[in-house]
Design a protein that fits this description.
Length: 429
């Protein structure tokens, strides 16, 4: 698949729309350093980053060169080498309920220069990405978003939710089970391969997680170049009593005027086993000279409240949509996952862009769905974005119905689609 998605020609429909607006849609040859650097700098600028030094650029070049890299250029600007629009994509295995890894079109680095905003550039880029994914037979597209108001119009729905926590470590004591295993400091460079393997196990074990690229994995293990806090990062690994690497935590300690009240900012807490989770949480809570642990991008089922002596000492300070899912090939997507209850539902799906539009009978037997088109009366009518929102097992059907984004038997849909363990994505991409 790698070679195909890199070489698939640029989408002609979007290329024409942009050409009519005096703009040029083009794939970027990531081996052309000058062109790729311009693309990377435009991407950093889009996300309000700095210009970045040569080391950071070199690192980004290395990490991102195998992504499909697309740019929009305004050739009317004299000597314009800098794109006015950027996007990149790759085929990421997404873990779905039941544990299968489904090829998904991961979209990242969507930026449009403020000088060219609200002229339809992002629309053209997104349309091109979705049609390219469909042409390659990829059944889903996925992304994480800077703003929740942008992507619903292209059929994406919020499929996982993330929580942010602050734990008052002067208030709580560890109240979880006795912890086991061995904790030790490590350096990102020496732990890199082990850390990537630990992350691969974690991502394969939970619906909503995606297989890590080296770019994503290494950012969880330690800082990328150009991170202003790079020198403050600490990495602690967890190994089981028999010496199996099963988790790690990377973090920085933020300065405080009061030397006994520092804040630990967790970059990532990785736990492939419950024993790793409890040992690493306990480690964080019992750090000396620290008054607070701050951590984000956790699942909505983060158990920390039940592991401390005072439930209110561990507070959720934020909860928001995280992974957005866009179904492109409905029969393929729905039959790729497993279901915890059997049932029979007719879904009427509306998709303005035409990919998943239609009426489908979904029969689940033994947890496996068979999907076919039908003319039977629908049990549930919904836009494709709402189907994306329930696809990974979240219990949002009733909320969508209340909001008018689904009609019919929301409870029947919920019973079949929801899972006991909610989906989670614990990284950004
Ligand atoms: C978000 C961004 C890519 C939009 O690009 P753009 O070319 O201005 O978007 P378009 O002109 O194609 O807009 C398409 C539609 O989305 C809407 N839209 C775009 N950005 C929006 C935003 N931030 N909030 C609300 N609506 C937005 C437009 O109003 C338009 O709606 P319409 O079709 O009803 O007219 C651009 O503003 C940007 O680069 N922002 C900073 C980086 C960022 O946040 N990227 C998203 C990463 S997930």
């Amino acid at each position: 698949m790698t070679e195909t998605y890199l070489t698939q020609p640029i989408d002609q429909q979007s290329a024409r729309v942009l050409a009519d607006a005096g703009l040029r849609l083009s794939l970027v040859d990531t081996a052309d350093q000058a062109a790729f650097d311009q693309w990377l700098l435009a991407d950093f600028r889009g996300f309000l980053g700095g210009r970045n030094d040569a080391d950071a650029l070199a690192e980004a070049r290395e990490y991102l060169r195998d992504n499909r890299t697309t740019a929009v250029y305004d050739d009317a600007i004299p000597a314009a080498a800098s794109p006015v629009g950027t996007v990149n994509s790759w085929v990421a295995p997404l873990t779905v309920p039941g544990g299968a890894a489904v090829d998904s079109w991961a979209i990242s680095s969507v930026t449009v220069a403020p000088t060219h905003r609200r002229r339809g550039v992002a629309s053209a880029l997104l349309g091109a990405e979705l049609r390219t994914a469909q042409a390659l037979g990829v059944p889903l597209a996925i992304l994480t978003v800077s703003e929740s108001v942008i992507y619903g119009r292209w059929g994406f729905g919020p499929a996982t939710w993330a929580t942010e926590w602050r734990v008052d470590t002067k208030r709580v004591r560890w109240a979880g089970p006795a912890t086991t295993g061995r904790l030790s400091f490590s350096e990102p460079e020496e732990y890199r391969e082990t850390g990537r393997a630990v992350l691969a196990t974690i991502m394969a074990g939970r619906a909503g997680e995606i297989a890590m690229t080296p770019h994503l994995a290494d950012r969880l293990i330690g800082p990328h170049k150009g991170n202003p806090d790079a020198s403050k990062y600490r990495l602690v690994r967890y190994d089981s009593p028999t010496g199996e690497p099963e988790g790690f935590v990377s973090y920085i300690v933020k300065d405080s005027d009061d030397f006994v009240r520092h804040t630990v900012e967790v970059n990532y807490l990785a736990a492939a086993k419950d024993e790793a989770l409890t040992a690493l949480w306990r480690y964080l809570l019992e750090l000396d000279l620290v008054a607070e642990v701050h951590i984000d991008t956790r699942g909505i089922d983060e158990p920390i409240r039940f592991l401390v002596s005072d439930i209110r000492g561990a507070r959720v300070v934020g909860e928001q949509d995280h992974l957005w899912v866009r179904i492109l090939d409905l029969p393929a997507a729905l039959s790729a996952r497993r279901y915890e209850r059997d049932g029979d539902l007719v879904l009427e799906v509306a998709d303005d862009l035409g990919f998943a539009d239609g009426r489908y009978r979904v029969r689940v037997s033994g947890g496996v769905a068979s999907v076919e088109t039908t003319t039977a009366e629908p049990d549930v009518t919904l836009p494709v974005s709402s189907l994306g929102a329930v696809y990974l097992g979240h219990d949002t059907a009733r909320h969508l119905a209340l909001a008018g984004k689904l009609s019919g038997d929301a409870d029947a849909l919920d019973l079949i689609f929801r899972t006991a363990v909610p989906p989670r994505l614990s990284t950004w991409f």
